[in-house]
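User: Okay, second chain of the day. Same drill as before: sequence in, structure tokens out.
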Amino acid sequence: MILDSLLGFFSKDLGIDLGTANTLICARGEGIIISEPSVVAVYQGTNRVVDNGQAIGERAWRMLDRAPPSIQAIRPLRKGVIADFEITEAMLGYFIRKAHGRSRFIRPRVVIAVPSGITTVEKRAVINSAERAGAREVRLIKEPMAAAIGAGRPVSEPRGSMIVDIGGGTTEIAVLSLNDLVVCNSLRVAGDEMNEAIERHLRQNYNLQIGEQTAERIKLEIGSAYPLEEELEKEVRGRDTVAGLPRIVQIGSEEIREALREPLGEILKAVVQTLEKTCPELCGDLVESGITLAGGGTLLRGLDRLIARETGLPVRRTDDPLTAVARGTGIILDQLESYWHVLESGQEVA
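Assistant: Same drill. Structure tokens below.
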């Protein structure tokens, strides 16, 4: 107990956005100190991390779809939840040590943002992973709450705020008031499904196989949710599925927009359904306050215009949407007395 207290005294309190695509860590009083892909490279058939346990995050991301058969680059989280417990534990441990200058003698308190729709079993997996990775105390915060706080929404006031947070694995949609989620919808359709739609389009229409990283670049460089004033084009390189040889094709933003129609349609449907479940008084508030967009998926061109057209509400994208959830966990750490009641402890999840 004395050792734990001493290690805790010298440890930083950390807020963690444990995302399907990226993990961001915010230290109390310091802001975001780590932002890296949620990827771990292991030797094939084992859970042993490559490069003496250092092939995690950015280093492992560069190996994705490029590693030899002896090495496998793994994303241990899928659809916003843990898919591989041991590898998630290794990844969390690496990031927690990195946040503390790689010292192993640390026992931080951590606040971890999780999707609002995950099960008790999935919550327990997150808590166990963090504890085994070195955390002495773990609290959970629902992602839409953390995103809204990070985006500067007045969640503690008795009026409605709406957040749409599109990450890699989940889309979190919520109406908040008085520090709680009044209506929420957690959809396991997000950035990954957009990338898969782009991969599928190229395979079906051009017989061209591309990897996950290429699909992500296409989405960022020419992807859109709404017609552009000047449509874009991009040269794409991949492998011909018929000849099996490298090939280059030219694609346009119009066809990528069409490819994204299905996942975007599901997200729009969930936004509308959330509004339909919201009480009239809070709906009235939203006419003025509108919808706030957060998460890396909202960087898609024209998404704000598409949602505004479908809902009739003003829509704005928060500054630096990729970091909104992590920033929210940092604010919660700085103001624990104000937000303690929105956090879940391990005992409550047991």
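The radius of gyration is 21 Å.

User: Thanks, on to the next one.
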